[in-house]
Amino acid sequence: MSNRQPEHEALPKKKSYNQMKRTAVKQFSSLISLFIIAPVMALGIIFMTFFPRSEVSQIEKRNLATFPTFSIGDYFGGKFTSGINTWYTDSSPYRDELKNAGNSFKGMFGITTDNTVNVVGDIKKVPTKKPSKVPSKTSEPSQQTSAAESSKETSKTESQTSEAEASQKNYREEDAEYTVENGLIVVKQDGHYRALEMFGGGSGNDYVDALNDLRSKLDSNIKIYSMPAPLASEYYTPANYDSYTANQKEYFDELATRLNEGIISVDCDSVLAKHTEEPIYLRTDHHWSPLGAYYASQEFARVAGVEFKDISTYTPKTIHNFVGTMYAFTGNINLKNDPEDFTYYIPSNYSNCETDYYDTSFNYSWSGNFFQDVGDPESNAYLTFFGGDEQVVKVRTNIKNGRKLIVIKDSYGNAEPGYYMGSFEEIYIVDMRYFNLNLVDFINQMKITDVLFTMVTYSVFGSNAENLSVLINQAPGQTIVDTYQKEEDVSDAAN
After folding, report:
1. Where are the chain's structural domains?
2. Cα dihedral sign for 373, 374, 380, 384?
3. pLDDT by residue (tens digit) across 30-51?
């Protein structure tokens, strides 16, 4: 006989009150979430589908993606459907307004002080050359004065000039707190916000090789000048962020030692260091200001031995409330809420100068103003200088000295040619990224006397410099014809 007890089915455990309460709350929360999320998603679909699509982003300074053109090949290759996806996300309705709202929302949670630096992104310390505390000021004496001073008086004694230069504030000696903003830093200095790009160094080999190659292919009577333009970080990086950006002056000086004889280096870095308390760089944009370009242009004209007009002879024009590219790059709402004045300068002989526009193959397109009115100048003010980069521009002045200048530049160089209208008989403007002709043939056949390479640090030491060799070596042996004809020339030919 077995003593084994009969087996019984396990009885279900009775749920506690707390368990039932948690279950009820969870179910109720799910229902609430469903009734909230579903309408929001529906509204989002309606918004993205039926509201007018954005075509241009003023914040990002670009045209947005367009709906792709259908083709059988693109459809089966996936390009068409990929294009639809890009168009759908890139051209969302009210893109700029939504981006502004998002940046404003983020800005509500920021904590700032009077000397705050906001830094974002993976910025690394510079492993080699460490920036010097004081930017070099060893260039040859210049005759420039500040814009404010020159409007009151056109001359100073050397002692007065030296005293003014020595009193310039050195922002590199001041500490500031910082955080990260998409690889950039945003400094609050003198009560205003300024965005800065860091420079980590580079070899500059492509730049040096290209200029040396060009020198070997041109007659020695044709002058070649190298004038690299520093980033704003050269002068405005806080002292306690010093190790994250290289001293650009040191790199420029070393670069100059590798340029062959017959290439003249122009040190605008030392000149700009004497004007740090003036608005020589735009705070909300990645370019220098027209005033900074003036001081650099003045130094080039001095080295080139041509006449150069003092800024007091120019007519200043100001665009108020300018907010440039740095707001789009950083998303920092403080930049948007701290706009700046964009002041450019029109030379006294401007009415006697004519500006002709060509495509990148030097086919004549039209003639018009060098200084242009641009749509939405509060964000596109830098396009005031001949409207942009993807063209060749020729300026014919009333100066009769036989000097013809070609400016080979990136967008930094756009602010310079207006200052050369009183220095050269003709000025050709070519962007290093957009030119389809052989540069050697162009210089020779247009009878250029002076060649100026002027571009920012990133273009000198970065991948943009690779384009210079292309310009020099592409399609050699071309016959280049200036297809522009004045109306009177056409009339004379007809008779």
Report:
1. 117-494
2. negative
3. 777 667 777 877 777 787 777 7
